[in-house]
Amino acid sequence: MSMTTIAPEQVNRIVWNQHHDPFEILGSHPIEQNGKNVWVVRAYQPNASAVWVVLPEQRQEYPMQTVHHPHFFECTIEIAELANYQLKIKEGEHERVTYDPYAFRSPRLTDFDLHLFSEGNHHRIYEKLGAHPTEIGGVKGVYFAVWAPNARNVSLLGDFNLWDGRKHQMRKGATGVWELFIPEIGVGEHYKYEIKNFAGHIYEKSDPYGFQQEPRPKTASIVTDLDAYNWGDENWMEKRRHTDPLTQPVSVYEVHLGSWLHASSAEPPKLPNGENQPVVPVSELNLGARFLTYRELADRLIPYVKELGYTHLEMLPIAEHPFDGSWGYQVTGYYAPTSRFGTAEDFMYFIDKCHQNDIGIIVDWVPGHFPKDGHGLAFFDGSHLYEHADPRKGEHKEWGTLVFNYSRHEVSNFLAANALFWFDKYHIDGIRVDAVASMLYNDYCREPGEWLPNQYGGRENLEAAEFLRQVNHIIFSYFPGILSIAEESTSWPMVSWPTYTGGLGFNLKWNMGWMHDMLDYFSMDPWFRQFHQNNITFSMWYNHSENFMLALSHDEVVHGKSNIIGKMPGDTWQKLANVRCLFAYMFAHPGKKTMFMSMEFGQWSEWNVWADLEWRLLQYEPHQQLKTFFQDLNNLYRSEPALYTQDFAEPGFEWIDCSDNRHSVVSFIRRDKDSDDFVVVVCNFTPQPHSHYRIGVPEQGFYTELFNSDARPYGGSNMGNLGGKWTDQWSLHNHPYSLDLCLPPLGVLILKLDQKKTAEALGS
Prior knowledge:
The protein is of the alpha+beta class.
């Protein structure tokens, strides 16, 4: 073929941006002309008046002609090999020299990559799809790849081509992946994909695998190098790899970064052991305030959480989302940490600093639905690609969002790899999967006739269940020692059982039943609690069916529900005492712990996503005292293995007495896994103190009062047991010994046998 015999319709397909493989026409092609081997070079430059082929090594230029179209340039060159040539392009009065993208013909995605992706098993597909700074033939640039199998053609838009989709048309592979290497661009470039369907409709889309997006309201993706950051958390990561988190203390501080504190506010108040505790002036609505950056949060949030003694930070969805006023659960950039708080590297810095301060990171992950925003995944390539076409399966009408098609291998691969991605590239320590029930049931929030049954006629979403098993199998295979937590509110069995037993593979499940029972119970007038003892005790009937996390989350302090302290009955003193009683019981009860920001100092108002927390309350002693209570409670929890090593094993818990509903008192024992240590917990859920309350205990000796939620430093009445009590040889509750205790009002006591003091006293 000579350059004069190329078919006009082929040229027109390039000019009209309708070609699925522009490499067939553009770039360099070896041909035979007059018995000689020569090269023909073709280029389409919509704004150019003249173009030359430049051979830098030979220092030669070859002018190109416009035979078929004013902006379609071509020429022939007699040379044995033609590699890394450049184009000199004249546009108006300006000239520029650049490498030709269509000279780099070899695809970067291998057949094996495409095979794994098409069967849903390319675990690190994010290293292939998306935008990746790379070097080909000594030329640096960015390689782009996007899955859009139903598109007629796909082009790249960006600052590098003045957002003109004609200039960088991509090539379609056999599996619907479009790709192109653009030389001489790099990190920081803004880009989108221009996608046309066969009807000619154009969609401008952010990169589904984009690692960073422009700050809202802009929506372009940004080329990012995720391997440039130098991590300093090697000790943390190695320790985690050899640790079973289910036998460790897990006390989670759940935080929404955008409303914890804004940059216009003063520093958060110091803890009670700090000096010069300031009064923090915070407006009721901080609409004009700037968000703290990830690096600023590292300086402010991490010391705060560390001083309070929490083991983990859980962040409401950190993935990119469009609306500041949302909680972050309508994700548009699954592979991009939100740019509200800084860059991808800034977020790495934040996590790195958390690990260096012995704080784990849990990120809320949302594979259950995605929004309809035009730049996102919805109708991505002009078809229902990521979502189901039938709204009876593909839409959550209550939320106004779309449902992923988990049965499509490439879609499940996109999500499963995304879960792995956050562990791999950002070193997170766990995910909390939001709204698992919405994934597991086809009729979730749907009326009859608005949903489709599965192949067996049931309402269970079998594809979603299998997808969750796949995700958990993958992430635990690569990263032992992590957490995968399900927010699942139904009776679906074996949520936190391993996948090889038929479970969904999570290692923790939020105990929604416990949460509802507790909040119902504590909202009652204490006199009525005697008729609802079952609220307190029922959780232990099913405690060992799953690995439970006890969570009092953001969901409980919004939509007119009041904050935790506002739910409590009585005057202010009783409200605060009830809060201490609730959380002390929570930390003594089997299960890992999660609580939402603001609960630790007794914020009265509901969580407002636009405002800061009410830090000004810490100028008042009762709120300072409540904060001290949480600091001591966390420290006690972390220091007593009996409170966490056997959360999910039957030997770890034993009722002493759960039937004293007349006094609304329960007592129980928590046992350590690796020693004979145990603690005794006694809870009085009414304002009525009891001066001689006897409980049975298994061993003789002196029981130290480790913790008293009614202590004076916490704002309590300071009733207690003068540091501890000796046992009496008076059998009770099926134990040979007993303790005569003073139970404080609305108080929780935690006692422990003092082995040394007992041995000295008994002469053994």
